[in-house]
Amino acid sequence: MLLALRRDRMATIKDIARLAKVSQGTVSNVLNERGNVSVERILAVQKAARELGYVANAQAKQLRKDAPLSPEIAVILPNIEDERYAAFFSGAKTHAEQQGYSVQLFLTDSCPYTEEKIVRQIAALRLSGAITISCCIDHPTLYKPVLVNGGRVVHALREVKGADEYIGFDLRRVGHELGRYLLSQGYRCAGVLAGPHYYPDDRELVRGLQQAVNLPDAQPIEIQYIYADRTASSTAPFEFFRDGRRPDALVLTNSSYLAHVQLAARVGSTGDCPPVIVLSRDGLHLQAPQVARYCLDYLGAGIAAASRMLELLRRNTRPNGRHRTLLPARGFGRDLPVVSTPRLAKPVTLRVLITKGQTTDALLRITPDFTRRTGIEVEYIQQIPSEMLETVLASGADEQFDLVRNNMSILSLLPARLFYPFTEEEFSSLTAGMFPRVVRDFSRIEGKRLAIPFDIGAGMLFFRRDLFEDLVLRRTYYEKYGAALAAPQNYMEFVRIAGFFDRAANPESPLRAGTSVPLGSAAELCSNFILLYLNHAENPDFSRPGARIEPDAVLQSLRTLHAYGKHAAPMRQKAWIGATLDHFIHGQTAMEQVFLNYTSNIVQLHTNTVGGLLGFAPLPGGNTYITGGALSIHANCKNPEAAKQYIHWACGAQQAELFTTLGGLSPHAEIYRNPNILSLFPWYQQLPEIISRSCGREVWNFIDSHALEVRSFPLLRKTATGQLGPDEAAKQLLSVIDSCLLHQ
Fold this sequence. Notes:
Blueprint: H1 13-20, H2 24-31, H3 39-51, H4 58-63, E1 70-77, H5 83-98, E2 102-107, H6 112-125, E3 127-132, H7 144-148, E4 152-156, E5 165-169, H8 171-184, E6 189-194, H9 200-213, E7 222-227, E8 249-252, H10 257-268, E9 276-281, E10 291-296, H11 298-314, E11 323-327, E12 348-355, H12 358-374, E13 376-383, H13 385-394, E14 403-407, H14 424-431, H15 436-442, E15 444-445, E16 448-449, E17 452-464, H16 465-468, H17 471-481, H18 491-500, E18 515-518, H19 522-536, H20 551-565, E19 568-571, H21 581-585, E20 591-595, E21 614-617, E22 626-633, H22 640-650, H23 653-661, H24 675-680, H25 687-692, H26 697-700, H27 705-720, H28 726-740
Parallel strand pairs: 1-2, 1-3, 3-4, 4-5, 5-11, 6-7, 6-8, 8-9, 9-10, 12-13, 12-14, 18-19
Antiparallel strand pairs: 14-22, 15-16, 17-20, 17-21, 17-22
Helix pairs in contact: 1-2, 1-3, 2-3, 5-11, 8-9, 19-20, 19-27, 20-28, 27-28
């Protein structure tokens, strides 16, 4: 019989305890997700709370003076309309949430009274800290109530006098660079539209600009300064064109001013809008006529502020002294030019043989831009990886492929005579800025420079963080195995977790299966075996003297495949690599081993029922191998100069951010420090380290990967499905591997 409650009274912890027949302390531990409570009691408390319609009064809990700080961080901004503040908030929120903190947004509209009210509210709610772009720059004690609670405060972008923590940009230096730019262009009169002078960010920028243009060696330049807040930003630009004046150039400290300036020039002046230099958030922009962007990484500033906040929260004591971080500016040159490559005199069409996949999809999306800029048409011939090698090896004088994208793992199988050699100067120019390890492994065929790295990938584990952090599942797993439910550190743990989430083995599992097994793809199933081998072998480096296949590692790998195959959702009909990720995206599996060059569609998790609660970690055991491809010019290419233009465009640093944003994986190292990319694909932050310790040509120079895929597939499939025992399969597979070894 349910506990009877008056309709005008909310259920309490005491009511739940009576109905669940447990102590109030047990109820408190369950509701606060702490304490050593059995699964049976957790379920009883949760059931009683649901039946009574109990809703935790979070604010009341936080208002208790003895309550612990809430795992929430406040981000306080002047507004969210400015792209710089929106980017800052996005960076801070993403980074904080990845570390388990929630984020609350507060807006001051640059009103000190509003900010004071917000601070009192944050202190009352006992939030863990505040990241603030403050409008109270002369009020260093404003945030004392947060600090008294034990919280932390990080000031950003606007430096507050006396504040202990600050993260921002060296705006005086930025202003100096802008001033030198004006001088370098030979301008004699210019205008500067800045925010209110009493805020230190724009004030410091203007001071730096003034110092630059007033140096003894500087040519004379007249500058008109106009300061405007948001309310005046639409009318202030007309002052630059009053009485028929027209400056040679305009400097805008906020990208939101650009539209207002262009409007003022169009209706308030008889001439065209003068050249504009505008401070902008870092990111992709199409080049606009007469507009130069000076980029500041506001998204990265948000990440840095959140990172510093989390560092402070991990400490038990407050740091001594001031901590001031000035972030580097990106500067000029980030825009995508509309025209930057000379067009050829005669029409040219390049035929590119390339592997099907999401990297190719990304390339196809942006190829029209290459054609528009150069006049070179591009025709793509797409094949699956197993077809590519045979097509390339069979190519002769009658084949009309101009360029080929070869997988790095088959470069040792190709003859050098099929491809055009690059000079040392061409090669150095085309590979500048790429991972040195990638350049080494992706570029040489028979020791010659015949390929330019185009795309990369490496193995990684993705898992459902929301399920791995679920209170009932965590406790159930602990009671069953005596271990914490966490990302597996080895394949024994991987198999155990796969079984735990397999509904056939555990009817209480919320999912169909623990992981997937690719029964329809020889390439992916062989890839899974190789990953297992790399993590079971004592030394998987085949390039060392006397290296041999380790029979015990082969056996253990097959036993692991057989063990987790029993708990895996089979993927039978899809032959392409990365298909198993579909099970994960659609909420059928708890974790998947995937290669990063096949994971861009995982961002769909942000819009489905999983809610973006995605975890990522190195593969169990930590070992993986590099994959990806390189572009080569075929020896039969009729127009190698056009082919070089294509490679310079497709593999170049200028295209890397857009290519990676659309689903490719560029070999340029700088991309994986780009906050815009990391905000979309946060797991890419681990890629540089993974690349540095992955296996590469030390494996593929000594084994025919194509032959291994074809010959091992029947054995691996039977092992994964239980049709063949791992011990018997190991005997047969050792013979297969031996037949695929090179340089014996």
